[in-house]
Every structure is written in C-alpha cells, then in structure tokens.
Amino acid sequence: xxxxxxxxxxxxRWWAELGRPKETIGPKKPAxxxxxxxxxxxxxxxxxxxxxLTDLNLRLLREANPEEGKWSYLxxxxxxxxxxxxxxxxxxxxxxxxxxxxxxDSGRTIRLLVTGTPIGQRVLELALVEPPSFxxxxxxxxxxxxxxRSRRQALARFRKLVRQYLSPEALAEFEAIRPRV
Length: 181
Fold this sequence. Notes:
It is built from four helices and six strands; from the N terminus they run H-E-H-E-E-E-E-E-H-H. The chain has helices at 46-64, 83-92, 151-166, 168-177; strands at residues 71-75, 100-105, 110-115, 122-128, 133-138, 141-147. Strands 1-2-3-4-5-6 form a six-stranded mixed β-sheet, with helices on both faces.
C-alpha cells in the first residue's frame, strides 16, 4: 500500500513540472511579454495527459522492443542522466525472465517502463522524480498509482510490483477472474 495514497493532482505528477513559488518582498515587477502563455497547469486536463502518457509509453516500449529479462535504453534528449546513478538504479531492479524493461532517459529524470509479453498488455511505470511515483495500466486502463518518499523506497517497492503484476501466477489469476466477452 502506498505511503501517501492521494488522488492525483497537478502538483504530484511528474509531467506537470511546477517550480516552487518564490517569496517576493515589495511590489511585483510586470511580467515579460508572453509570460501568460507559460502558466503551468492553467486549464490542465489530468485525464487527457494520462491518456497521452499511456500512448507514449506504449509507443516507446514497442519501438525499443526490449528482450525478456533485459533492459533497453532510450535517450530522449541530448542531455544524459548520470551514468553511475543509472547503473545503480538498473541493478536495484533485477528483471525477472518474464519482464521486459525500458529505461527512458530524459536528461534530468529517469522513467522505468516494464511490460511483459505481449508488449503493452500490462505497463508498469516508475518515474524517478520528486516525489517518485508508480503507475500501472492493464489493457490500457489505469489501475494503480503510488507515491513514495524516496527513490530507495520506490525502487524497493517497484521490484515487488513487477512480480505482483507480471508474474505468471498474477497473469493466471487475472485470466481466471476475467469476464469473458
């Protein structure tokens, strides 16, 4: 169970980067021209962003096509995440033979995407941002989210969640209770 089970908000989602509010003393200076176009979260649609992210995760996983039991790597920006830290993160999450992993390097942040076979039927995402978060999709439906206090806690929990959602036992249990259409 999550340490901080809260409903998703703009403030706790990694894709809505919010800076810390600055305390000002005295009168405010006028904003530069065009600044009104960069207000984060104004008119923000959490559900639409989550759907776009689900589509993006599936595209990235299909493009990378990681092998079972192994990690693939995808660098999205010219800036790279620290290589030594990345190796520690990958070592902390030992993939079982039935899981396929993709490290998505966005320069300052890392996301771990893990799926099984077929690719995309179940997608687990660990976003190592502040605060780290976990999301799970089963057949493209968002089914679970957790927030963590630290990367260490997130990585330890993620190992268990990979087994909980992708192990042959978990898949067999799901098929046994799945409604037939």
